[in-house]
Amino acid sequence: MGTLLRLTVFIFVLGALAAGMGAMLVQERQREQILERLVAAPRPETAPPDRADDILLLRELHARTQRALLLYGGLALGCVLILAVLPPRSPAHSAETAPASSAARTEMRGLETLARATAAQRVELDRERDARHRSEEDLNLQQLLANRALQEKIHLGRDLHDGLVQTLYATGLVLEAAGQRLAPPATDPAEAARLLERAKSTLNAAIREARGAIGELSPDVLAGQSLAEAVATILDHLDGGRLRARRVDLSPALPALPDATRTELLQIVRESVSNALRHGGATGIEIDFAPLPDGRLRLVVRDDGQGFDPVAITRGRGLDNLAARARALAAQLLIDAAPGRGTVITVTLPAPAAVV
Fold first, then answer.
1. For residue 46, what are the domain limits?
2. Rounded CA gap, 56 and 35, in Å?
3. What domain count does the chain have?
């Protein structure tokens, strides 16, 4: 009876272990498929929902595998203990004792071999789990680096558009005005020479901005000037002889601004004035910057150009850049425009303590 019971226990445990191993192999195959999808997937700025679901499912499969290993390892150990405590055959059946003992030893050796194989497989699964964990960390790091590179590319493109491109456009306006001064019948060589000198100055400014962008420096070439002087410099560079009237009113109650905030505001002024001259045909510009009673700061750029329809217009980099720079300042951007009248751009910044 003891031998039959041992054999029954052995067969039961062996079947349970075989079923468990099959289930773990199926889970391992699922984990491999998920990892292949993660490795083959693109790395966008933000991970898509299905990618996050795959990572959560992969971790759940890891946990299931660990629980299964503990369960079946405990089952094997329990089998060994049961077989160890089962009573031996009665001495009256001494003739059958030798074959039964031999079968028991064979069973014990089989269970011992199975236990060693299970332990070795667990070690291998732990090693594979660690390797896949490192792969996940590498994927996360690569995605982080890709997102950072994309943000830097977007920032560089915005600075080039709002800085270098606008300076080159202003140079073109100045050269066009100089050509008009040299065209007959009303030639004015002296004014043309003055305009050519201004074009040279704006080209030098463009070179400085390009060097600053290449060296990953601030695109603001107006460092060292006061805010009023910097705004005047921007108007001088973009004028091209087309502005007949301009007014800049900066309140003396304005607080000192951080360099990053000052740079973003100057780029907003540059983009707004450039759009007014290039697209709106403006001949007058008014700029007001003052604190509000609640402590916030308000910048207003107003022109007398032909305006545009904000709904019908095809959005370009200019309007998108204005919105992006306002978001960087945690500011509110309002564009009041309509065909046939001037445009008013208003940027309302948080109180100085909250300016980012």
1. 2-152
2. 12
3. 2
Residue 160 per-residue DSSP state: I
**Does this model's pTM top 0.90?**
no
**CA dihedral for 113, 114, 116, 117, sign (positive or negative):** positive
| Residue 323 is assigned to a structural domain of this protein | yes
Could you tell me if 257 and 133 lie in one domain? no
Is-contact 331 164, C-beta < 8 A? Answer: no
CA distance 22 to 356: 57
Q: In this structure, is residue 234 part of a structural domain?
A: no
CA distance 202 to 233: 10
Domain edge (last residue) among 105, 134, 152: 152
Q: How far apart are CA 55 and CA 38, in angstroms?
A: 8
Q: Hey, CA dihedral for 196, 202, 207, 208, is it positive or negative?
A: positive
pLDDT tens sequence across 110-119: 888 888 888 8
C-alpha dist (Å) from residue 335 to 30, 173, 326, 354: 53, 25, 12, 23
